[in-house]
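User: My advisor, Dr. K., asked me to get a structural model of this assembly before our group meeting. I'm new to this, so sorry if the format is off. These are the inputs:
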Amino acid sequence: MSLSNIIVLGVYAGFLLMILIINLLYFFQVFKYRLPGDASIPILIIHLALILTILVVSSLYLGISSLL
Amino acid sequence: MSHLIEEEVDANDQAFLYLNLHADEQILFVVRHHWAGFLATIGLFLAMFIFPALLIFVGKLLVANQFSQYHSFLVMGLSGYYLFLLTFLFGSWLDFYYDVIFITGERILNVNQKGLLAREVSELNLHQVQDVSANMDGVLRSYFNFGTLTVETAGEGTSDDKARHGLQGYFSVSDIPDPNRIARVILELHRKIVNEENS
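Assistant: The format is fine. Below is the predicted structure of the whole assembly, which you can bring to the meeting.
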């Protein structure tokens, strides 16, 4: 693996960490400020499902394409 | 509209502790912004959502033979972009949805969410109310029945209108569902309190 690839992967990992921290803060915010019976939890679940879909699909794609 | 204006609320629920309600104070209405007020953000999100597809289409036309070399970088860039976009959308939605107005038997409490983990709670006593007005301008607001609610008071206030922000005796909130009904409710409560004080 070349140095430029390692740098790109490092930047991408740092970016993913930042996104993870922001989403954890949102998660905390929802559980702290939500009101009984509001739409926060369903929307949070949809948001997490979309985030996980992007992460899993892109990781699988990158993993498989590096093996081929 | 009923889901935007709640009328049966258990004020003893732990979720309302931060409002510091008085012992016998009941929450009569919980009012959130109308969903149509979020359409501009959704429009921006959709435009940003399709933007990379246009960029890739143009890129393929210009440098078709070099495109496969950078496929992995492209996938990483796209996934990062869409993760950022989803996080931005969710943050905007929380900002929008967590702005709430509580109308109790004594006060109006305006909870204003300000970004991540910051919120401002301002209140005004109903007996201070001097004038309440509802403003619906534009096709969208008239069609969906939402607009700006303005309460003029004898005390300090807060305002969504930047030109009149924090002006003395001025309390306004935008994108309120059925603002005429809310204005009528506030005036009725004010009249009830004044009548009770006089008697």
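One thing worth pointing out at the meeting: Chain B touches chain A at residues 6, 10, 13, 15-16, 30, 71-73, 75-76, 78-80, 82-84, 86-87, 90-91, 93-94, 97-98, 100, 113, 116-117, 119 (CB under 8 Å).

User: Perfect, thanks a lot.
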